[in-house]
User: Fold this.
Amino acid sequence: MKQLKVIVFQIKDEEYTVPVELVGSIERMMPITRVPGTKTYVKGVMNLRGVVTPVIDLRERFGIDETETTDQTRIITVTINEMNVGLIVDAANDVLDLEEDSIEPPPEVVGTMEAEYIQGVAKLEQRLFILLNLEKVLSKEDVHELKKVYV
Amino acid sequence: METNQYLEVFIDESKEHLQTINDHLLVLEKNPQDLTIVNEIFRSAHTLKGMSATMGYQDLSNLTHKMENVLDAVRNEQVKVDGEMLDVVFDSVDDLEAMVIDISEGGSGERNVERVVQLLQTIENGEALSSIAPPDDGKTSEGTPVQIQLDEFTSSILAQSSELGKNNLHIKVTLREDCLLRAARVYMVFEILEQAGEVVQAQPPVDQLENEEFESTFHVLLVTDESSEELENKINKVSEIESVVAAPYEMGEPQKQEKNQVNDEPVAPQNGETRTKNPNEEKETKQVGNKTIRINIDRLDALMNLFEELVIDRGRLEQISEDLQHTELRETVERMSRISGDLQSIILNMRMVPVEQVFNRFPRMVRQLSRDLNKKIDLHVVGAETELDRTVIDEIGDPLVHLIRNALDHGIESPEEREAKGKPATGKLELKAYHSGNHVFIEISDDGGGINRDKVVQKAVANQVVTEEQAATMTDSQVYDLIMESGFSTADSISDVSGRGVGLDVVKNTIESLGGNITVDSQPGHGSIFSIQLPLTLSIISVMLVEVQKEKYAIPLSSIIETAIVKKEDIMHAHNKKVIDFRGKVVPLVSLMDVLDVPEELEEEEYYSVVIVRKGDKMAALIVNSFIGQQEVVLKSLGDYLSGAFAISGATILGDGQVALILDSNALIK
Assistant:
């Protein structure tokens, strides 16, 4: 049976997963430089060992209210379509093997989060995991807010 | 033979030789009588043939051989240089280039070249000269008497050595006709000879031998302790040697050689000017030459990356030493900064390459295009030695190609039209590169029809780039800039060369993405000039760090004119915009806080700190909260995800590890 190795992270009360091969590293919170003219969920850029890496806040991306940064807050860096992006999550503390058979297509309505970001859901024992569609989450459309020229 | 490790060198050198052939062919076209040029071409072709055969690329070598035959016939004045003949040779060079490119892309270098080969053959046989088949390379020298001439010095050496009981040997070496690496064989033979004794003289002289400027036979006078048989045996061990004859050399006595061989006649000392070499001189010539080495560009890039890391750490160290106020640490850090500054300029210099690399393909292109378009064009290249960073060089080729095509297609008129206008039938196109400050300028100017303002306006209005009212108030240069907006093409008919409406805007974008800019100037009836300004280097730039509220931003020094402090009451209003009077000029004020949406945290002060920046001849004063200072920073991209952020051209990592954004002041001025 085919297995999928995933990193599990937490936002609010729900557990999400991304395939482990897309994840570059998991970092503690670090200073982030704001980039003007971007959507609010784009927190800015950080210095990831010499590489300037954009960071987005998944809470805000999914329309969940902001919380304070805690000791548990992590930045997961992922690489997709040759883009490097850091994702701020509430906590990240698990690596799991999911049976591919246990993954089901997303239900029509899942909480407040827009369903298009969800690739599927998987049940393991008593836990429910949401598989993120990173390509959708990180789609480049409307990252920038429209700006007029000042002079 | 294990050839992989030589493949890169082979490809590089082949390209160089093809370029030389190309260049010389173009010169030859202008001076068809100049046979020395043919010799140059022949030499390059010959080396190329040898190399490709060694590497096992038969097709390449065969075609070069055919081309060489034609050149040889030209050299021997059996074939005349004319347009037709040059076309065929150019064609074969094209084929050769295609083969080399194929090889460099991992192909086998095979290509169907029958047509060109046939054409070459026809020329070689030359209808008018059908009776005289051009002689094969390697045989031409037969029958030409070769003499070894001695000057006094040489003959005194010989006399001395025979008194000492040494053997004076005259050695005649004939290489096999299919020998590929003649210079290498010569070198091997000489090495043997030098071990055995002293080479007193060689015919042809050693430098010619090393450059393969001989056919297949050469002669050497040697002073040695060894016998002639011993030497013959040793030399015969070198491969690709047809025959070796070593015989005692008797001064003043003519020596007989085998019948069908060259007639060697040693001549008694009489001519002091004959070229001779004593052993010392010879050694010198062998050492001269290699002052450069080829380095894989990846290694240079890696070096550059490592150095960028170092620059970031240097910034960090500088900051730490400032905080600690420790004298010795500070001195050491200062010293290190100076050294790394020197290192930086060396590394940047290493990455500089002459624009020639890009320019040298243009003469050929212009020639071809002017034929396709039935126009007469004279191309002038000025300043090809101007150096630019390699990254810029890599990117600048396509935009230039486009601009040149444009100038040929739309700029320069047909010969008839030109004559009707009273201009010389041949149009002029000038390609000029030069340094100025921290920038390199490339100008492409033609003496064609210039840009037709009305046509541009018409088109721009039709394509809804501007409205008619806007157009009416625009200056000429603003109108000319319109042709670089997207979706613009003024050519009435779409031609093969240009005019698909994509292009000039792409050119503009490419150049701006390189941190440069492009301007157009034109005089109707007299031609246009496209002027491109490019930064010398892309990766490390000097910036002024400023604070906007609590955020840090970097402004490239290249766009800053100066900084100033402005009193609040000195601010004036014009058209509802804040402006200041800066040295007699009205300069608009731009609040970076507003533009960049920086959250307000500081109280407003009585004075404004402003940075005056410029774009072309326009200026703007950017309001900041404080100046931090000047610094060298490494330019980094924002990453794909955020690329294209407004007014931000990139980011950099500061000494404290934080990221600061680099402002694109061009975007703030319109």
